Amino acid sequence: MGHFRRSGFLWLLLMLLFVPSVKAELNVGDKAPDFSLQGSDGRLYSLADYRGKQAVVVAWFPRAFTSGCTVECRSLAKNGDRIRSFDVSYFMASTDPVEKNEAFAQDTGADFPLLSDPEGQVARAYGVYTMGFARRHTFYIDRDGVISHIDRVVRPSSSAEDMIEHLNRLGVPRRDS
């Protein structure tokens, strides 16, 4: 019995030492974690560049070329004109490498950047990192850098329509025509 307790204690100690700590979940009203991530278009995107200027939407997705992610990306691409009628910059983001997101963007006809976070540091900061990939959550960030809405139940097939509905409800202004 003593051996079992000792080995159980060692296992617990190892877990505490080597498993990264769980970050508290982000909530509406929290300041959005800053990021600088490479886009599928070759540009570097930083949240700080939009502060005071424009709202930002970051739609995290698990893996490029999977069925749900393909449906979601195509939905956003198909409705890009409707989304861009708002004064907002929007992105999809994953822990996939840049090269994979570049190919995925081309394959799905994405007319918006797909951001790559291959080390998962930004995904961890947003509380979406799990077992090497990001959970499908969409963050709406106001022009002050504050989270105004989090969609934790994203439906890939209607993601664009849902995004448009949230942007309307949040009062994100329309671009001048």
Descriptive account of the structure:
- The chain is α+β, with helices and mostly antiparallel strands and 177 residues long.
- Helices cover 34% and strands 20% of the residues.
- About 7% of the residues have low confidence.
What does this entry show, briefly?
The protein is α+β, with helices and mostly antiparallel strands and 177 residues long. The chain has 6 helices and 9 strands; from the N terminus they run αβββααβαβαββββα. It has one domain (26-169): Glutaredoxin, CATH 3.40.30.
Task: Write the topology of this structure.
Elements: H1 2-18, E1 36-39, E2 44-46, E3 55-60, H2 67-78, H3 80-83, E4 88-94, H4 98-108, E5 114-116, H5 121-125, E6 129-130, E7 133-134, E8 138-141, E9 147-151, H6 159-169
Parallel strand pairs: 3-4, 4-5
Antiparallel strand pairs: 1-2, 1-5, 3-8, 6-7, 8-9
In whole angstroms, the N-to-C terminal distance is 75 Å
Question: Helix count, per DSSP?
Answer: 6
Task: Round the Cα radius of gyration to an integer and report it.
Answer: 18 Å
Order of helices and strands: HEEEHHEHEHEEEEH
| CATH topology-level name | Glutaredoxin
The low-confidence parts are 10-22
Widest beta sheet: strand line-up: 2-1-5-4-3-8-9
Helix residue percentage: 25-40%
The CATH homologous superfamily corresponds to Glutaredoxin
